[in-house]
Write a structure and sequence with these properties.
mainly alpha, 85% helix
């Protein structure tokens, strides 16, 4: 029974997600720190852990569920998917991201809640600039089971941005 469960898990997606989130954080630190500051490898690891173990499995499921709810890729259907993705999913995943980072840093749930309230509204605006065009292409041209790959590719600069915003909190 358990063998079948583990055979169905696509570990490649999780490994890619973990690697790209970690790379995004590493690059963010290289760009935003001066040459005398060292890289915070614990932060890189937290980002990699979040990307591979939390974000990627949930995102993969989201794209599968969204396709079942709204199948197809006509302009009207694409618009519906984008609205759901950029309202429900976006607010959920940004909140989860900031909460997860806070908890993984060893902070309390109160700190996590405050971070969500402070960072999510401004992150939503940046999110729409990056993810609306990305997801329009994703929903139009990429098969649902492969959508997380394009998302994870764009996640390198995006996760770097989120890591940078989170580090300022």
């Amino acid at each position: 029974m358990y063998r079948n469960i583990f055979r169905k898990i696509d570990y490649k997606k999780y490994l890619i997600g973990s690697t790209l989130w970690g790379v995004g954080d590493f690059v963010s630190q290289k760009v935003t720190k001066n040459n005398t500051e060292s890289i915070d490898y614990k932060r890189v690891f937290r980002s990699a852990f979040y990307g591979g173990c939390i974000y990627t499995p949930i995102a993969n499921k989201w794209y599968t569920v969204l396709e079942k709810l709204i199948p197809g890729n006509t302009k009207i259907i694409l618009g519906k998917k984008l609205v759901l993705d950029q309202t429900l999913w976006c607010s959920f995943i940004l909140s989860l991201t900031y909460a997860s980072f806070a908890v993984l840093e060893g902070n309390s749930l109160t700190v996590a809640k405050n971070r969500i309230c402070k960072e999510v509204p401004s992150s939503m605006l940046a999110n729409w600039c990056v993810w609306v065009p990305t997801q329009a292409l994703n929903f139009k041209y990429i098969q649902p089971h492969n959508r997380v790959y394009l998302v994870n590719l764009v996640t390198v600069p995006w996760s770097g941005y989120l890591a940078w915003k989170n580090s300022k909190s």
